[in-house]
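so ive been stuck on this for like two days lol. basically i have the seq below and the ligand is adenosine-5'-triphosphate, smiles is in there too. i just want the complex predicted, nothing fancy, no docking runs or whatever. if the output looks off dont worry ill sanity check it later, just need somthing to start from for the group meeting slides
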Amino acid sequence: MVKSDIKIKDPLDFEKVVALSFKRKGYEIIMPPTNTKGYDIELRKDDKCIAVQVKNHKAKCNTSQVKKFQHFLEQPDASKFTEGWFISANGYSKPAITDIKAEEPEDLRLGIFIADRDRVSWTYGNPESISSKEPELEPKPKPESKYIGVFTCKGGVGKTTVAAHLAGAFALMGHDVILLDLDPERNLRKLFSQDIDDEDASVFVPPINKNEMGTTITVLNHDEWNPEDYPDIKITICDCSPVLDKNPKSLVEKFDYCVIPTTLNPLGVSKNCDVIIRTFKHIRQLNSHAEMFALINNYHSNQNFVKKNQVLREHLKRSLSKYTSTDHKCKFIDPDAAKIRYSTSLLYWGYHIVEGTKPQLAFNSHGGKSYPRTDFLQLAEYLEEHTTIDELRQQGH
Ligand SMILES: Nc1ncnc2c1ncn2[C@@H]1O[C@H](COP(=O)(O)OP(=O)(O)OP(=O)(O)O)[C@@H](O)[C@H]1O
Ligand SMILES: [Mg+2]
């Protein structure tokens, strides 16, 4: 590694601008050799050795980018670093912040570099952290609730699990959510109430920041649901029946978005593709505006399966393109952008019914981490980026 006297030729060279800013604050700067992977700047001060990753993207940094840096910090090559600082020029997506605040890693900080003030505003990891929230200037009109259907004409692929935990991710991000149970099996009611005859099937999702309010997920059957009773609800998620005709037509017509869970396995890949296309077509017959997303559930992320997963997903994507190329509102979510990994917390989710204990989502951390929490926040982030759900936040909810 070469200690360098940094000279900026290009004023837009964000990496060097950030490095110089820290230099002025008394840090020793070591620029790693070109093409070093994982970090951009090394900072030293007292007994601290800090790996800094900088991102000067127009878009906010998302969960995957932050996770990648965290993964780097865990590698043996990074063992000399006492901390990792992720410095963005344009902030972080809400799911990325939510996930990090829930995980509370001690060796990671997220900051936003404010160039004209030559300083970093810390989003996570500084005791005097400055909130990245922009102050609201004026009240804005309330947006309509968005309807998300979790739907597929195949049983057992994770509709209920995905519907409930996607609701959980939006709840963690500060939205109250209605979960509509359209499946006659009434699995959601069982999962969210302590007693099956319990009138009230709901969970309170505590806030990640102690000074915020917390949110609720309320489970309703179709006959209990009247949107006028819930004027403040901005997100309604429907766990649909796998028998497509059993889902009320009037509700399918309302869907803004549909999430269609599927799995990646060699014997099922062709059949799953047919099922997804059939689901796309069926919903499209009833609803001309819904954007639909096929999502991989039960993804095995183990390193040994990287190649097999790649081949299977390319195969699925290619087969689906027969339909997605004709209906541009239908997409396959590339697992690099969002997927739900296989997790024992999800496998055993619902065990509380057997035990008779309090309902809760499968977001409990193990060693600070939770695959389901990260994955569902990432899915919520994907939906925000690819749809207009983000309007909810921008409109001051
Ligand atoms: N990502 C995952 N990791 C591990 N287990 C999972 C995952 N997703 C779902 N499961 C397990 O798979 C089983 C089926 O899931 P789920 O009940 O959500 O499917 P479904 O599509 O709603 O089924 P049905 O058609 O019967 O309503 C559940 O036992 C759940 O625990
Ligand atoms: Mg179900």
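The chain has two domains: 2-124, 146-394. DSSP finds twelve helices and 15 strands in the chain.
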